[in-house]
């Protein structure tokens, strides 16, 4: 214990001693700015900043400075035909939201009569101060949503909070996100929460009134730039690694976790290393200490040409109790942790992966991931056998912006397939979970899925999203989300180890077992009343049919206001 905290303190002191400047935070994963970043990544093929946005969240300062350059080039006529009128609106909105890193046009962001000449000097922020020795930006958080589900549930979300970011002495950047929340969710979400002892995407909760939940959502961190292309961050937040809607490597599906991040870029190569402390699978016992895991992941990306990016991913997860706490060898940011695990005799769960992204014709993108937990060549090519040891997953997707010459109509189609027993280890404590939720895909393992998304912004303030997804998953029991210890293990429940009641060596295929056929479709319209203040209306249809039990079809609608917050959605 003392060693661990001494290492952490020493690391922090070493970072603060560096001669660093221009500290920044990151653009939140749910921020509307990401839509413009994705579009321009395709339309400006090979941009030296946006091509390296596979690891999210993205650096606010670098993105803002690049967007300001794009704005200047567009005004000078160098990007003729690239940006639409809606893109220009979104670009100006991005620069206004990130005015602390905007060098030009800031005068045009001001309002004539700020409240008490102090608050809302620009439409984007409640309070903002920018001085050489420090800066601070304060934003209110609000999400008030109401609705109904055909399962008989009156739905609501009531969230209030504050968001703060800034820098001190051009050396230390910081950010804090805090919200206090109450919500009542559809029946299937409540069933998931009861089975997992964890609220989707949030973690710890308390019961609130009838069938409701009460919880805090707190995230934050401090950042250091040791040079133009060298970054450090210490925080409590989430990551997303990928270019698609889902990620088979690491997603923002689960609760936040503590982490230490190192990033470096040299030309067309960028490397990210993260060490994190996560929560292993658990059954709650009052407010007792949760069991801990340690996770280390590395991601190396190479922009091979102006249209092709390829990446190499590695992840190692191990349980603190089984392996005697933090293993110092894993602090080394060097890639290939598996060799360290073998040298120390550590019983870690390791995964590797490859991904790619190809942009072409300034309208299209094709992307994919290949995750490997375990791969036996002598069995892999015996396709009909379905041997359990071949634990891997595939993703393949495509995007089409300004589809069919309709400006700001963006289409996306994505397929995901994860074989049985992927993300599982011989010790269930090492499985790829955090706070009883999958760290990658929300369906866990043993499934195949198809996702289609159409996003249309016909006018600057209106955004319409149509989503449809269908999947087949193999369960161990007809009781959804429930872990059973006396039924055959079909490789889809990440709370079991891969030896627990596995009855055969062969015959395991994605979606087999107690089959569930799922379909989820949603239509969401969001209108921006004022800067970052939205009125939302959503309709969702969900079908979750498990063989041998009655059909489960529900319809839901919700509407309400949100300010600087993302919509709550449960797309599984």
Give an overview of the whole structure.
By secondary structure, the chain is mainly β. The chain has seven helices and 26 strands. The strands form four sheets. The protein has an 18-stranded antiparallel beta barrel. Helix 3 (60-75) crosses helix 4. The radius of gyration is 23 Å and the shape is globular. The two termini are 38 Å apart.
Structural class, judged by helices and strands? mainly beta
Rg measurement, Å: 23 Å
**Strands, count:** 26
- Portion of residues in beta strands equals 35-45%
Termini separation: 38 Å
Q: What is the overall pLDDT average?
A: 89
For the biggest sheet, the summary is: 18 strands, antiparallel, barrel
Number of H/I helices: 7
User: What is the molecular shape?
Assistant: globular
Could you estimate the helical fraction of the residues in percent?
10-25%
Give the low-pLDDT segments: 1-20
Structure summarized in a few sentences:
With 572 residues, this protein is mainly beta.
Key terms for this structure?
572 residues, mainly beta, 18-stranded antiparallel β-barrel, two-stranded antiparallel ribbon, 14% helix, disordered N terminus
Task: Give the helices and strands, then pairings.
Layout: H1 2-17, E1 26-27, H2 33-43, E2 55-56, E3 58-59, H3 60-75, H4 85-97, E4 127-130, E5 134-149, E6 154-168, E7 172-184, H5 187-196, E8 206-208, E9 212-227, E10 230-237, E11 240-241, E12 257-266, E13 269-279, E14 292-303, E15 308-319, H6 337-344, E16 349-360, E17 364-374, H7 377-380, E18 391-400, E19 409-418, E20 433-434, E21 437-438, E22 447-459, E23 462-475, E24 514-530, E25 533-546, E26 553-563
Antiparallel strand pairs: 1-3, 2-11, 4-5, 5-6, 5-26, 6-7, 7-9, 8-9, 9-10, 10-12, 12-13, 13-14, 14-15, 15-16, 16-17, 17-18, 18-19, 19-22, 20-21, 22-23, 23-24, 24-25, 25-26
Helix pairs in contact: 3-4
